[in-house]
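To the wet lab folks,

You asked to see what we're planning to order before we commit. Fair enough. Below is the target structure as tokens, and below that is the sequence we designed to fit it. If anything looks off to you, flag it before the synthesis order goes out.
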């Protein structure tokens, strides 16, 4: 895996195919998002007030989409801190590489789906904020 520099893109919009039956969003790797998808996971059954994440990735690229309900994503690239509200199943947040992230304020019954560029690899995680700051300062 190549190291990549941290990047955040808010408001990645996916086309909604709607008709009288309802709505459908399709996400195609390398067409609608800039990477091949090797893994999909989702976070649900969220307990009110819980905050999770608290890590960065060295290389992983991910798109986060709250397909039901809402949640907030705190991101920190070492210089700039941002909050992104995800509350629309047709809008994603792209996070690439070493960006600190925390997910919080999940609404009841919210479902956060994540499309990831790589298989699960604990060695790609930086779970200590000071080590994250040190890691990006070396890049
Ligand atoms: C991220 C944010 C948005 C696996 O076994 N396979 C997986 O693919 C994942 C993602 C997790 N796990 C295991 C590892 C832990 O025992 O599931 C448990 C919970 O994972 P974690 O504490 O890392 O979950 P979050 O919500 O803090 O972070 C997750 C992702 O891990 C992370 O990549 O960017 O969601």
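Sequence we intend to order:
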């Amino acid at each position: 895996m190549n190291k990549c520099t941290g990047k955040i893109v808010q408001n990645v919009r996916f086309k909604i195919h709607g008709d009288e039956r309802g709505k459908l969003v399709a996400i195609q790797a390398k067409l609608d998002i800039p990477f091949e998808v090797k893994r999909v996971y989702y976070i649900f059954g969220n307990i009110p007030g819980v905050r999770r994440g608290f890590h960065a990735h060295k290389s992983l690229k991910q798109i986060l989409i709250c397909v039901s309900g809402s949640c907030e994503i705190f991101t920190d690239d070492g210089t700039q801190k941002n909050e992104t509200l995800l509350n629309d199943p047709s809008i994603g947040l792209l996070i690439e590489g070493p960006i600190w992230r925390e997910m919080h304020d999940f609404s009841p019954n919210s479902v956060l789906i994540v499309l990831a560029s790589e298989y699960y690899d604990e060695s790609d995680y930086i779970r200590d904020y000071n080590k994250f700051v040190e890691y990006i300062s070396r890049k």
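Structural context that might help your review: Residues 58 and 123 are 9 Å apart (CA to CA). Helices lie at 129-138.

Thanks,
Computational group
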